[in-house]
Write a structure and sequence with these properties.
The structure is a single chain. The protein is an alpha+beta fold. Helices cover 51% and strands 17% of the residues. Strands 4-3-7-6-5 form a five-stranded antiparallel beta sheet. A five-stranded antiparallel beta sheet has the order 9-8-12-11-10, sandwiched between helices. A five-stranded mixed beta sheet has the order 14-16-17-19-18, with helices on one face. Helix 3 runs antiparallel to helix 4 (73-87) and helix 5 runs antiparallel to helix 6.
Amino acid sequence: MIYCLFYGFLKVGLPVIALVYLYLTCSSVYLFLGISLFFKDRKNIINKIFLAISLNLAFWAFCYALMTSSSTKEAAYFFNRLSSLSWSTLFSMVLYLFIYLTKREAYLKKPWNHLPLVVPSLIAIYLYFLHTTSANEIVRASYGWTFLIPKRNGVLWDYYYGIYSVVFALVSIWLILDWGKKSKLVREKKQSKLVAYSLLASLILGSITNIILPLLKKTYLPQLAVVSILFVCLVIRYSMIKLKLMSFTSERVVLDVLKIMNEGLIITDPEGKITSINKGALQLLGYEESNLRGKLAEQFFQSDLMLSKTGISSRSENEIITQNGTLIPVLSSFSVLLDDFGDELGRVILFQNISEIKQIQNELRNAHEMMMGEYTRLHDVIDSLPGLVSVISESYVVRFANQNHNSVFGESEGKTCYEVVAQNKPCDNCSINYVFENDLPIRGEKLFYNNRIYEVTLQPFYDIDGSKLVIRNLCDITERKEAEQELSRLQTEMARLERLNLVGQMAAGIAHEIRNPMTTVRGYLQLLGSKSEYQSQESTFQLMIDELDRANIIISDFLSLARNSTKERRYQNINELLKHLFPLLEADSFSQNKQIVFVAGEIPDILISQEEISQLVLNLCRNGLEAMEEGGTVTIRTYLEDDHVVLSVKDEGKGIEAGDLDKIGTPFFTTKEKGTGLGLSTCYNIAAHHNARLEFISNPNGTTFLVRFITKK
């Protein structure tokens, strides 16, 4: 190469020497740009592609320098042919770069999508490197040797490189402009215009000097495409430095965020001297940055900084010393920065002002102490009351009982109120339930299992977490009642009989108002079903009769949600049960202008109560129908999954509100105007009775309830 340049000074003119040095300068700049960018972030795919393009361009420019300074036509022809390896593949590489720059790399996930990007460059290599041309196409000009494109392969092949390079360049320009147009960032909009316009200018100049003039056999200008592309690379370099193109990595974003965040950040060298400090730290300490650089970070902390030798230490509380000597409590963490060889690069100290937090903690601590004192005093007062005091939750569980209560009924906390009085279910017409439902106090009298009469006072109130509770006070009035009975036994007996009579009338009224109409309907259904003209509908009549019987059972079970199930169970297939229920469900859906679909999978028999599972399916399906607008579909599926038989009921409603998700299945919680809030609670109880798990998945497109039954082994 030195010989060629020396020969050029002696044999050729100044234009040749100037052009050779221009090519060599471009080659060197390309190498510098590619390598320097690559080592900024060697893992970045964009930096890797940019390095490949830079090496390609450096090789192209170097070959042109050798071609221009060659002493013979054959040597110039060789170097021109060698350079074709670069300019044949350049525009494919550029298009790859712009695909990644504009965040369209998803296009490259399919292998065959690489073909349109790679094949054109392979064809160019074949035409201009493997398919030999004549050295006669190399001609001498005033600025050195130049290549004239031959016209003997046909129109397509003669103009192939021009078509290939222009199309790929225009696609790249469109990609970057479209990316900038869609971006909401001013930085990216500027980047897209700078890069697109520079590439367009380079394309125009390169097309004139490297394609149009060589095709026209003109040698007015040297081939400057490799020089014009340098302008594009410099624009990209400018965008990288000023606008963070390609260098806008997640690590850079994190560093910028750390510098502007309100929390304090100090970076030191291995000796602990401050090298960098963010605005948050300056504001907390009250210093100017110039006053802190080079000082030991530890002198601004009240306690020693316990730094780990392997990385991040545990967070701890400390105090910083401000410029005016004030101590500010902070939550701090300390890290040692290590390189890949384990050597220490420096230290990072993060700290956050927790003055307000500490103040709030102190206030909360004082409030908690006061509350605990009040709680203790209240507990002592209640515990010393002469009455039998207990606090009962909505699930009838005794949350608190005073000494007198425990002395009469035994240790009561954690038990249900009816278990305390030796019952296995809640009382009929439970007063506690009435207080919860109506949020009203009740006072009355009650005879408990110990044959003592108590005056009962029930007062509703809300716990600190918002849950409803009832405080019950039992005052033993047995002696007083006995005295009253002794004085007016007759009047008392008559009053008691009247009360019993009232209860009997109420029971008779309930039986008359509910069961008699149902019995009448059942009787007529049986009568109609026995008639010959309705024999074809016998199964339908029988289904309605069965449903009336089941409704009667549901009425009895409805108010005994907490009672353990005693229904008979046997091994049977849920699909058969669903087929039996489907006509009834279908009738419900048709009446609401909705649809219901049953998809039965292959499942084994499991141990279930037909009556309870029927009630569960009806509750879930009717809930699904009520949750949808007209035209919606409820889909019932059964399938086997992980040794579980799964029953799925999916609706197409609007889903469950986020605030209600944790309340689903809670007794008496409902979002319906006329609902009781016991339907899903019953479903959860039935599932529990069957050792099954009831789950649900909800989103704005609908809700799916899943009941997972364990299969027999």
